[in-house]
Design goal:
By secondary structure, this protein is α+β, with helices and mostly antiparallel strands. The chain contains 12 helices and 17 strands. The strands form 5 sheets. It has a 4-stranded parallel beta sheet, with helices on both faces. The relative contact order is 0.10.
Length: 392
């Protein structure tokens, strides 16, 4: 009997789970590594707890991408109909709501359940709480070797990185995949916020907070329209949010980066010069010098420098949330249709030393669990886990 190819998948989010299932389909023996205590946690918070599986109007034109030819190749390999077939083959019924695809129950937990059951059915070896700290290719053995934080080592013929991107501003959070990719010789471009809300300093936002309306969002840079999207826009107390805002946010990030204003040779730009730290450091230093030489005012140059240093210092020293429940409630209340509920799932210990466990549910989906010596403390910890899951 021919030995099966051993494949390691690092990251058990949606892409990692699907990669593992697909690898088994083609005859591989798969080990799926996940740093969290269970796989697919973030799936539960997608689509406001309903899990938007796809879009019937799935086309290259709907994507902002630097390499459209590569993207076209991916579309030829896997279409939206392949997505529908994939989920229905596992027993998940899919419904169409105005072109958007959801599980028929409109519960994200249904999607995660069928994926977990398929992992079990395909006999994928799932390794939760197994954060990968090192991975390299052993040339003489022609094997990839991975090492976990607990010291366990495994050898594999193929390695799939499905670690995802940073979901928050926590330093170092979500960078494992990029760091491993660099070690294997891949070039990683500058990481910029995407699918994010936008902040404004105009001052009128709080008066409109909570208002939703159909609108067109256009990003204008140096009198030129760079991107535009239409849809439902939501005003918040700090700026604007909503799907069209999320779609243009990547271009806003690009526009705010100094590298987008550099005049570089074709070869330098093609090789990522606009994102190279050494070039950007030179630009920053030159800008400071230009401000001082042009104005002759040291205080003006100092003011420019502090605009960057002070926010960075505050971000480094920012205190974590204290009232996680209130913070979570404020986020969820931005969408009146959503329902948040805390449920006590366990109680143990004598009266003088009780321990409670609590789950927080979003539209009946569990998005966080916590424990503590009182129900309030357990609820706070559950809310904290939910916020981390949502990228706050």
């Amino acid at each position: 009997m021919k030995n099966k190819m051993k494949v390691a998948v690092i990251g058990a989010g949606a892409s990692g789970i699907v990669a593992a299932i697909t690898a088994v389909k083609y005859g591989a023996e798969v080990t799926l590594f996940e740093k969290n205590d269970r796989v697919g946690k973030k799936i539960l918070s997608t689509g406001n707890g309903k899990c938007n599986l796809g879009n019937l109007e799935f086309s290259v034109e709907q994507y902002y991408c630097n390499d459209r030819e590569k993207l076209k190749g991916m579309f030829r390999v896997f279409s939206v109909w392949d997505t529908i077939t994939f989920f229905e083959s596992m027993g998940l019924m899919v419904r169409n709501r105005n072109g958007y695809l959801y599980p028929y129950s409109e519960q994200a937990s249904a999607v995660l359940d069928v994926l977990r059951m398929e992992l079990e059915r395909k006999k994928v070896r799932v390794m939760p709480e197994a954060e990968i700290t090192e991975a390299f290719f052993h040339k003489s053995k022609k094997l990839f070797e991975v090492k976990t934080a607990t010291g366990n080592v495994g050898s594999f013929q193929k390695l799939i990185l499905a670690c995802g991107s940073p979901a928050s501003l926590k330093k170092g959070e979500g960078l494992t995949g990029y760091e491993l990719a660099k070690k294997f010789g891949h070039r990683v471009g500058a990481l910029l916020p995407g699918l994010a809300s936008l902040r404004s300093s105009d001052g009128f936002e709080k008066a409109l907070s909570g208002v939703r309306c159909k609108a067109k969002i256009t990003l204008v840079v140096e009198d030129r329209a760079k991107a535009a999207e239409e849809g439902e826009v939501q005003f918040t107390d700090y700026g604007i949010s909503g799907i069209p805002v999320f779609q243009v946010s990547r271009y806003v990030s690009r526009a705010l980066e100094a590298g987008s204003f550099l005049r570089l040779s074709h070869g330098e730009r093609h090789s990522g010069g606009q994102d190279r730290p050494s070039i950007l450091a030179d630009v920053f230093e030159s800008t400071i010098a230009a401000i001082y030489l042009d104005s002759g005012d040291l205080e003006r140059a100092k003011s420019f420098i502090l605009r960057f240093i002070i926010p960075a210092a505050k971000a480094q020293n920012a205190k974590p949330f204290k009232d996680y429940k209130t913070t979570l409630q404020e986020i969820i209340q931005q969408n009146p249709e959503e329902k948040l509920e805390y449920r006590v799932t366990g109680e143990s210990g004598p009266d003088h030393d009780k321990h409670f466990t609590v789950e927080v549910h979003l539209n009946s989906n569990v998005i966080g669990k916590g424990g503590g010596r009182s129900k309030k403390e357990a609820e706070q910890q559950a809310a904290r886990e939910a916020l981390e899951l949502m990228g706050y």
